[in-house]
Amino acid sequence: MTIQPAASRRPLRDVLDVLEPADVQAAPVPIGDASATIRELIKVDQAIRLESLVLIAGWTTARAEFGLVAEGQEIEVRKVSVPRADVAAHFGLDSDAELGIVLVAECPEELPVCLSWEADGQSGVSRCLQFSGSSSVTGIGARERTLFGPALGMLALAYPPFSEQWRWFIKHVASSSAPCATARGHLEGAAAVEKTRDGVVFGWVVHTASTVVWLESDSGHMYSLEGAYRQFRQDVHDVVGQAFAHGSGEAGFAIHLHGLKPGSKVQLKAISESGVHVLTEIQFTALPIDPVGAARVLFGIGGSVGDLHRRCPLVDTPILGPLIEHHREVLAELPVTGKQLGEAVSQPTVSVIVPLYGRADFVEHQLIEFAEDPWFRSHVELIYVLDDPSLVDGFISEAAFLHKLYRLPFSWVWGSVNRGFSGANNLGASKARGLSVSTGGCCPG
């Protein structure tokens, strides 16, 4: 497919009045030199308006320059040459590559539009074109899509990226197997959570300023890279920096996507004048539903540690937030057991929370110190949080013995599972009556 700018031809204002308009929509019209043995023809198959856009599709056997005229003035037009095998077969021509023509121009809806041409030094103009079909992009039927062919890609570029009209054209434009000259990229990883359908995709992409790139799931959903975390990639710049200049400045990206699951695929796509290009494809692996496990995966996707403050709000937090909330909901459903040993301080000033994981032998050393502190005895509520299943049975009996030995009131609580350091502290805080203080160094887990 080739795109040509509006031809620089002589103004038609002086000759329009003497030209006899031809009805190029009713039947093929001869153009060019009338004395030629074989007449060259032009035919308009379809003329439609899409809001302020005028779209003309047809064919010609002539070497001619075509344009559009509104109120006696030529308007700027883009021309696309597309294959027309039907025309080549009808006329017995060897090639169909340049027979189909598509013209696209912007023109106010109220203005009548005519087709103009110049062939063999002869100018011509059509009658005012009759527009048919829906004025909505989504109203373009199968026949129109066939006539416009690869030019649908160019039409997509006439609309704002990811607008309703743009998305419609992208879904109907033909895919191109040719390498994309205006974009390159690679997807290095993708992972999603089965339950929440939140995921992350990361890799790199470079493209020219006029090229649109996006991610597309195997279900056809399109995701803009707008809002993705971007970073400079020296390795990418070393390879493609010369070809794409400033376009490789922030080639690296990581983006949060919603609505995907492990096993599904996503493609990195770009659109050019020759159609839609698939730059690369990747399949989603499973991201753990456990927030800690998911965080380890996310922190392993690379990037500068000093830049996490930019990446986390864009990528990590939208994924980890729902997992943390789900984790809290699960923990809230588990049974919690505990016991108060001795008479607790009636109105504690401070509640000291001690998570226990891996070992509990230091508890006696703490009680020795705490029991000798009069202020501690009078103002502090001491809470031990068991956060290790292997400690539970032994600690319950040991706790009763230590209380009888040191006569210091304290309580213990067990939340059925290992909740992690923050979860253990939260459980202890939920039982506390004073200002909560955690002894963070006592919980290796």
In words, what does this structure look like?
The structure is a single chain. The protein is an alpha+beta fold. Helices cover 27% and strands 33% of the residues. The protein has eleven helices and 24 strands. The strands form five sheets. The protein has a six-stranded antiparallel sheet with strand order 1-7-8-4-3-2. Strands 15-16-12-11-19 form a five-stranded mixed sheet. The chain has a five-stranded mixed sheet with strand order 20-23-22-21-24, with helices on both faces. Helix 6 (291-299) runs antiparallel to helix 7. The radius of gyration is 36 Å and the shape is rod-shaped. Residues 1-10 and 441-445 have low confidence and may be disordered.
Secondary-structure blueprint of this entry?
Blueprint: E1 2-4, E2 29-31, E3 40-50, E4 53-60, E5 65-70, E6 73-75, E7 77-82, H1 85-91, E8 100-106, E9 114-119, E10 122-128, H2 142-148, H3 151-156, H4 164-172, E11 183-192, E12 198-207, E13 212-217, E14 222-224, E15 229-231, H5 234-244, E16 252-258, E17 265-272, E18 275-283, E19 285-286, H6 291-299, H7 308-333, E20 337-341, E21 350-356, H8 362-371, H9 374-379, E22 380-386, H10 392-406, E23 410-414, H11 420-431, E24 435-438
Parallel strand pairs: 11-19, 21-22, 21-24, 22-23
Antiparallel strand pairs: 1-7, 2-3, 3-4, 4-8, 5-6, 5-9, 7-8, 9-10, 11-12, 12-16, 13-14, 13-17, 15-16, 17-18, 20-23
Helix run count: 11
**Sheet of most strands:** 6 strands, antiparallel
The number of strands is 24
Flag low-confidence runs: 1-10, 441-445
| Class inferred from helices and paired strands | alpha+beta
Tell me the distance between the termini: 63 Å
Helix content: 25-40%
The coarse silhouette is rod-shaped
Write down the overall mean pLDDT. Answer: 87
Major β-sheet strand ordering: 1-7-8-4-3-2
The fraction of residues in strands falls at: 25-35%
Kindly provide the radius of gyration, computed on alpha-carbon positions and rounded to a whole number of angstroms.
Answer: 36 Å
